[in-house]
Amino acid sequence: MSERVVLAYSGGLDTSVAIPFLAEQTGGEVIAVAVDVGQGGEDLDAIRKRALACGAAEAVVVDAKEEFAADFCVPALQANALYMDRYPLLSSLSRPLIVKHLVTAAERFGGTSVSHGCTGKGNDQVRFEAGLSALNPDLKVIAPARDYAWTRDKAIAFAEEKGLPIDVSSKSPYSIDQNLWGRAVETGFLEDIWNGPIEDVYDYTADPGRPREADEVVITFAAGVPVALDGRPLTPYQVIAELNRRAGAQGVGRIDMVEDRLVGIKSREVYEAPAAIALITAHMELESVTVERDLARFKRSVDQRWGELVYDGLWFSPLKDALDAFIADTQKQVSGEIRMTLHGGRAVVTGRRSDASLYSYDLATYDTGDTFDQSLAKGFVELWSLPSKIAAQRDRDLGA
């Protein structure tokens, strides 16, 4: 059987040109795989037809929006995943899901190689190839943009030469990647980190400074999973989609940052993640009510490491699997409701309630009905301070 290359296909110029290019380079057939992770744009049937028109032997399209929400966004939410304490892991969540479907297609169609459109400067090449190594180490990888120094000019010339049915006239000044969890924008004038973003950069969010009425929402969680908005039962996908609209309309979730890429360089990125920021804010607040103090303190370090692993392309790794098990255990009692006000670019918690709450009004109140025995505090403070007191006395005695 001739070689078959499974291509991660987006429907754009670069991956459309890659179909005949890979066929020429390998002498084999190309299987195009397009995965819908909520990025919007063209429908899957149009993308499938374009792949076939560009010469693909087979074209597979996968509606993975619900899967992406439940199996990738929800774990990120439960880990409160914010890379460098700010970035809610947009692209790095979608790549392992795409890899999973590439491997499935390779097994189905007898693929011997997998191809992606990543350059040698970005993080995504690592995310694709580390994932492929974990799921099917026998598959070879071809990356035209990296391995053949494939530029946009070359791609346009090749498309015109082959008469491919794609529009090569329009060119966005930005490099954009988007999915259900958010939108990432880079390049163009943004590469000068003194330049501020303009409204033209944004699509998921409205100008937070524009006058409008505030939006109040109640988010219901069950074991760390968002299951309802304002009392209406919804799937995780539906929750995220609705919050993208509602929080986005209030300008929530804009992030402008210089981040540390895996490949060792710093990169300026502009993100929009209205639902992700609102949900993570709500989830963290519910954890503050339902998770015991020492467990919560330790989980913060686990959350940070989880986010770093996923950002670095190690979704399918032993450490990530082990941290998943720990995080899942912490979510058993993270159930309840969080009320938020969405307004002026902020998602502000205004109320919380849970049957699993560790908050006790009777212990916390300073009014009549206080059940906290303050007589115990004096001895506790003395014992708690004793190690520091002994050390201070020693240093004084030794003249330190």
TrEMBL record:
CDD domains: ASS
GO MF annotations, alphabetized: argininosuccinate synthase activity; ATP binding
InterPro entries: Arginosuc_syn_C, Arginosuc_syn_N, Arginosuc_synth, Arginosuc_synth_CS, Arginosuc_synth_type_1_subfam, AS_cat/multimer_dom_body, Rossmann-like_a/b/a_fold
Residues the record lists as binding L-citrulline: 87, 92, 123, 127, 175, 259, 271
Protein name: Argininosuccinate synthase
Classification via NCBIfam families: argG, PRK00509.1
Residues that coordinate or bind L-aspartate: 119, 123-124
Organism: Actinomadura rubrisoli
Assembly and interaction partners: Homotetramer.
